[in-house]
Amino acid sequence: ILIIVIVLALIIGGYFIYQHQTQKEGMEQAYQALQNDTDTADYEDFLQKYPQSPYVKDVTDKMNQLKAVQNKWVEISMSSSKSDFVQFMNQFPNSAYENACKQKIDSLDWVDASTENTAISYQRYLDEHPSGKYASEAQMGKENIDKMTVSYSDKSAVRDAVTRYFEALTNNDNEALSSVVSDKMYDQSVSFMEKLHNGNQQVSFSLGGGVNVTKAPNPTTDFVFIAKYRMKRTLTANTGEVTNVSYNATSTISPDMRIISTKMMKIEEEQ
Fold first, then answer.
1. How far is CA 88 from the centre of its chain?
2. Angle at 199 between CA 194 and CA 200, to 5 degrees
3. Backbone angles phi, psi at 217, to 5 degrees
4. Is the pLDDT reported for residue 83 higher than 80?
5. How far from each other are the two terminal CA atoms of the chain, in whole angstroms?
6. Which of 25, 93, 141, 218 lies 20 to 30 Å from 45 when distance is taken between CA atoms?
7. Alpha-carbon gap, residue 75 to 69, rounded angstroms
């Protein structure tokens, strides 16, 4: 009987030792698995399974930290303020939401750049996000704006074309007219010039200030210049009567400085 009791005690003791060792190994494995885990449910499960573990405080602290990160992310995830996400990454470096933060910042910076729609704003986006989601769109936007930017030499050439056009009309000069207007506009311009000089009346034109020059897309020539300016026309009849008429004028000019069209709207008449 004594031998049986001893054997049973050894078996039971060995069983409990085995169970304790098995549980300890399981606890160690579970704790190691938590080192890169960001799911708070796994931390809660560990605490329920191993309430007497020496890692309880460490696991609890890590779980609370993860919950703080999650709560903060829920708070700012729908924000439209870039600073919220920058501050989040500074406060919680290397968090599970770092990539999501970077994507939000990327999107918000793109919204700002595309809304501003300037070469500077697109370049700023490219500087901050050289491999960003919208890098190709930003590069294309910048190139399109650069293409549509009017240089000082462009403005000077457009003003010169407008001036030469009205000088040709003033001087009744077909040759000068042909050098500054497009082929399609030539016949129309000649007809207009003949009407101006009908009856041997004298006519002259003068620009009333600067010429505002912009570019506009064009399917044929890639772009055209749009010149807006004020023009004064003076008619002197054979009787000596002088009539001054002012116009708001708009000319469309090709890249090779040929006037494609000119529209003039009378704004006042002076005697």
1. 24
2. 85
3. -60, 150
4. yes
5. 141
6. 93
7. 10
Q: Are 19 and 27 in contact (CB under 8 A)?
A: no
Phi-psi region of 77 (alpha: psi -120 to 50; beta: other; left: phi over 0): alpha
- Residue pair 96/38 in contact by the 8 Å Cβ criterion: yes
What is the spatial distance between Cα 204 and Cα 168, in angstroms, rounded to a whole number?
10
| CB under 8 A, 24+ apart: contacts of 22-27 | 23/50, 27/53, 27/55
Does the pLDDT value for residue 271 go beyond 50? no
Contact 245, 232 (CB under 8 A): yes
Cβ(231)–Cβ(264) under 8 Å?
yes
* Cβ contact 76:100 at 8 Å: no
Rounded to whole angstroms, the Cα distance separating 119 from 106 reads 18
pTM above 0.85, yes or no: no
Q: Going by C-beta distance under 8 Å and a sequence separation of 6 or more, which residues neighbour residue 231?
A: 166, 205, 206, 207, 208, 246, 247, 249, 264
Number of Cβ atoms within 10 Å of the Cβ of 251: 25
* pLDDT per position as a tens digit, 158-203: 999 999 999 999 999 999 999 999 999 999 999 988 888 876 678 8
